[in-house]
Amino acid sequence: MTIDIADYLTVPEKSEWKSNIGGLSKVFDCLFFEQEDHISFDILKRDADREIEINHLKDEFNNRILDLLSNYVLVKHFYNKGIPDEEWYRKENGKFIFYPNFQPEHFGYQHWFNFYIESLYSRFIGLIDSLFHIVNIKYKIDAETKPGFRRVVLNTLLQIEENDVYKVMNDINNSKVIRKLNIIRNNFIHNQKPSEISSGVKRFKVGGIKTKVGLGDYTTSTELLNVFQDSIKYLKTDFEKFKLITKI
Q1: Strand ranges in the chain using DSSP code E only, listed in sequence order
Q2: pTM for the complete prediction?
Q3: Residues 6 or more apart from 25 whose CB is under 8 A from it?
Q4: Residues in the chain with pLDDT < 50?
Q5: CA distance 123 to 68
């Protein structure tokens, strides 16, 4: 079966935005740094450069939240159209039938849902990176922005005995809820997409290479959405602690 995915690309009406955000409205509202309309800096003041950079990073974080919110609305737009993938396979007469409840339009909705959910996960991880950059500047860690950046920031926080900051940043980085989202995000980028049924072929190194062929793996649209919703709620709690502890 061939479909034209462009036939199913639609944009939510303005009135739909509020309903799509739904119960996460208050969560998103809490995930902003308060910023003054007009900010001035005394460049002769000690650490003025850090103050300027932190304010820039706060603005960037707020903009990232707006991007995330817009992305979420688009995800919900296609999710609400209906993607009947809870039963993603059915066995009949010794054969597996994939997406047995799909009509042609459901493949279109699924495509655009998957398109936007992948970017939603990446944008979420970008939020956490922004918080680490703020900590890096505020506490004069000055870690290089290269692989292992977060680990260096966390280790340095312990060394300089900023234990409360360490606890909240370590929780953001290593909590079970957010780690689950990050694993899925890594699979989106580096491995087989969890939003598509995998090949079912798995290879193991046990005295050589052994191959196992099975049904494959798949993460339903509802689960992908739930993982994000759980993660953004969890981040909200840690973000409130972050602002209180860092006084930013």
Answers
A1: 89-92, 95-98, 201-205, 209-213
A2: 0.91
A3: 18
A4: none
A5: 6
